[in-house]
Structure formats: C-alpha cells, structure tokens
C-alpha cells in the first residue's frame, strides 16, 4: 500500500514534536490515529522511522533521510495546488528574509528557488547574520521570517517556529581510528580527542555544552 499525504503530515508532526501526544495535540486529532499512521508508514517503507523510549520518540537515521523527502513532497503538493488556484499571480510585495551562515551555505539557494517558482511576484530581500541578531530583528518586526537553527532560540514564547529539517550530530573520524568501528560513541569517548568543529550557527556553543556536562573542554 502506497503512503498517503495524511501519513506524511503525521510523520512530520511527530518528528517536530518528538512525541505522539504532542503531534496529536498540534494536529487536533487522537493519539491512536497518529500512532496507527506511523505504523502503517513504517510498514509501507519497510524501515523504522523512530526509536521508541519512555519519554517519547527519537527519529532514526532512516527517519532523517525520509523527513527530507516528506517535507519536499508536501511542499510540491502545496505548489501544485497554488498553481491551479492562481495564487502566484495574486501574491506580491516584499519579503524580508534573514538567514544564518550555515543556512546560507547549504540550503538557501534551494529554498529561494522553490519560493520564487511559487511566488514570482514577491521581491525578496535577504540578510545574513548570527541567530541572536536575527531573533532580535524578528521580535522587533524588522524581518518577516528567518531560516536558522532553532535549538538555541532565546525567547521561544515571542516567536512562532516550524521545523523544516532535523539534522543529527555527526562525528567524522580518520581511517583506522579506534572509535571508527564502535556501534555507539558517547560524548565521554571523544572528550580527550582533538576536535575540529564548525563554529557557526551555535555549533561551537552546543558542542561546548555537551562537553561541559561531563566537565570536559574541547581542545
């Protein structure tokens, strides 16, 4: 049985909320409906999209891969609907967009291309800066929207956010490294290792927090 748009919507909601109950509340439906949709989707794909634990769900590596496809499918469906209702011609004006360095380097070109296809009449003005400053501009009404890492938002109550993509932490190791063959690597395993890491979009700050939890420092 092929998966449905409804199942994709439920899957994305669970990935964003991290729990079935949170997704059900966000979608205003029963938890059993969400659970059944996820089970059917996993059965259709033949993979496990989430790891279950007492506090909720963790999206798996396969789940991350499918999340990118699911998000694009729903965006394409939305574009197709707008094409038939002529919303592109009606939309106009100016969009003030903010992006962080990581977003600008990896995903901005694709996002802009898709948006311009859907709304060719909208003029887009984009600025690149750090997350704290973009958050300040959003709250102050200087930006209409920002695409950024949301894990370190300073004032979540003042902003409405939507997850476009979930990116897991990845550790890259040289060939022959003792940890390269390990099934599971904890933060304590790399505490004494020399690290090369990105310093944009709060990555350095987040890594520092993880190491600080075990009283270690990056070096």
Please, could you describe this protein's structure?
The chain is mostly helical and 219 residues long. It contains 9 helices and 5 strands, in the order αααββααβααβαβα. The strands form 2 sheets. The chain has a 3-stranded parallel beta sheet. Strands 1-2 form a two-stranded antiparallel ribbon. Strand 1 and strand 2 form a beta hairpin. It is globular and about 60 Å long. It starts with a helix and ends in a 7-residue tail after the last helix. The mean pLDDT is 82.
Q: What is the number of helical segments per DSSP (H or I, 4+ residues)?
A: 9
Please state the CA-atom Rg, rounded to the nearest Å: 20 Å
Which superfamily, in CATH terms, is the homologous superfamily of the largest domain? Answer: Periplasmic binding protein-like II
Biggest β-sheet: count, sense, barrel? 3 strands, parallel
- Helix-strand category: mainly alpha
| DSSP summary, beta strand count | 5
| Fraction of helical residues | 40-55%
Going across the biggest sheet, name each strand in turn. 4-3-5
Instruction: Give the CATH level 1 class of the largest domain.
Output: Alpha Beta
